[in-house]
Fold these 2 entries.
Entry 1:
Amino acid sequence: MALVVQKYGGSSVENATRVKRVAERIVQTRKAGNDVVVVVSAMGDTTDELLDLAGEVSPQPDPRELDMLVTAGERISMSVLAMAINDLGYQARSFTGSQAGMLTTAAHGDARIVDVTPGRVQAALDEGYIVIVAGFQGVSPDTKDITSLGRGGSDVTAVAMAAALKADVCEIYSDVDGVYTADPRIVPDAQKLDDISFEEMLELAASGAKILYLRSVEYARRYGIPLHVRSSYSNKPGTIVSGNLEDIPMEQALISGVAHDRSEAKLTVTRVPDHPGAAAQIFEIIAEAEIDIDMIVQNVSTAGNGHTDISFTLPKTDGDKAVKQLRKKQEKVGFEKVIYDENVGKLSLVGAGMRSHPGVTATFCQALADADVNIEIISTSEIRISVVCRDSDLNTAVKAVHDAFELGGEEEAVVYAGTGR
Ligand code: ASP
Ligand code: MG
């Protein structure tokens, strides 16, 4: 008997009909002779709606109470799913994250898993139950408070459960057939990948691909749990995420895909004194505000006069905080001003084959030039090239790069559901 962990995203259980459909799929897996643990997200856009509600009630909701609120979304989906399974003649039992042993840090809204103690899950499995676990949530052993794992966190719950239970497979069900060469909502001829390495998937997820949550891929790689990404609306084979970069032959698959991200802003600090320690002071201010930054460039635009500009990208949600903290220390650091720009988008090209193909950057930049897209920042890793451009150019840029690397195919990608919210 194999142990299968299945995770269903919000659009897979967006209404009663879908819940019943998913229940049937779970029962089929069970009938095939497997033990099944299901991790479920909140129905449809419930989490967004709960956050909107909180925002209407309070301008700055208390983080503890906000977690009590948003974790309710998964409590609804887990219980109705268990009911639907029971009606099909199988026994199911739902557990909150806390009951399932998801122990986390106390950081509300962005808690990290510190341990998983799935005693009750294991006991229920041993008694023959199908187990449903609420995704995206846990409990802090320090504060005893309920926490949430950050948006999209149900994937992490699934991978952590799979690791703790030593599951044979971790299947991630969503509203598309797998991992695509680009977001099919923007690039209609995007192709589904049959498989992809953990590293490439990490780069795609970190670059804005929403199909898998970055932390779940990190977790899966650390514990060596292959992920099977597939659709709950079809029976197609999906994408297997597994294996390491070292195992991919250098010559193979030049590019795996293009990702884009609209969640970041660009911040520029101008006329920073060009002496040792100035950059350190700036990034110290950002670090103290607990802001994660990404692409950094130090320009030589004003070379020769002892000053330089520094730009970087950061989540739009942290923009106000960053600007405020930097302006406070302006005199001390000695820069001229802070320019904050939210109208930017980020595009990334990811592929293991880049390591051994020198022409990739040239083709990439030429594609953007032909599409009349201006590049504002460029950064690279071993298997990724990213640029920042105008937000209004982003869709055009994604299509242009996807075309230039001939990633498209005959088959039209299907987006079965979801609002993409
Ligand atoms: N329901 C949560 C969210 O929308 C968690 C998840 O979907 O994975 O972010
Ligand atoms: Mg969701």
Note: Residues 9-10, 41-42, 47, 73, 135-136, 151-154 surround aspartic acid (ligand 1) (CB under 6 Å).
Entry 2:
Amino acid sequence: MSGPRITVVGSLNMDLVFRTPRMPLAGETISGHAFRQIPGGKGANQAVAAARLGGAVTMLGRVGDDAFGRQLRDCLLADGIDASQVLAQAGMASGVAGILVDDAGSNSIVVTPGANMALTLEDVEALAPTILASDLLVCQLETRLCAVMRAIEIAKRGGVKVVFNPAPMQPLRADWLALVDYLIVNETEASQLSEIAVVDRATARQAATKLLAMGAGSVLLTMGGQGVFVAGQGDNSRMLAAVPVEVVDTTAAGDTFVGAFSVGIGQGLGIVEAATAAQYAAALTVTKLGAQTSIPTRAEVEQFIASRAARAPVEAA
Ligand code: RIB
């Protein structure tokens, strides 16, 4: 493996995806278009994105001792990811996500975490040498908070850059943000963390400014069709416009952004350049159904950027 060394601590889920004309109402039964079983989980998706974009990726996580667990691990291996620390947890089921995707490309997701919650603080401590040999650590919150925070503490103490995507949000101690070099949040997560309702560029700026003041090194606030607000220490914030595409399914767009951004930073790009490249990768993801089935390769992203070269997505703040 070559490219920036990236360790991902996080979740693996088998996604059970139902294509449906619209979201059913409470108590209603409707007919769907199609069903597919697709590998996912925020941690695994971010690992796959980083690997397909050129990172040398190691993943730490837990799956169940079941068929889904074997498939999830095999999918990481197929992308060249070191999955030797994705262990099967005896007596537990793998994480599963039930996902409804409607004709507008919107989704609703229910996750039963299963073995993801078996990842312990001790598991993370055993991986400390791998974390410390990395260029970046990437974490989310679909595993136990204490394990994620331990990984972040190890990385920070060893001078390894931390990319943190606190999704799904859990209550966090504010002082932990000081351990995070790159905080990647959507509007909901930014609103919860900053206690400022993020609805537009102005409120994104306010929230990002507060998150920086709370200690985050840089803030990347992803806003779907509105684009990404990028803010670093000092007065260098920018709104990057979204890359327009035909939306099929937004699942894993955020994860692709996280993985692609991490590779860009690991390759020495600045935050605006890394976020711009990550936006193109995330845009491609929404043009296809599913999580890991939709994450593009580096060649696909480069071809896409070349095809859109005339439409630069960077705008002044
Ligand atoms: O971010 C998308 C992911 O969230 C899905 O793959 C699903 O597994 C849930 O974890």
Note: The first strand starts at residue 5 and ends at 9.
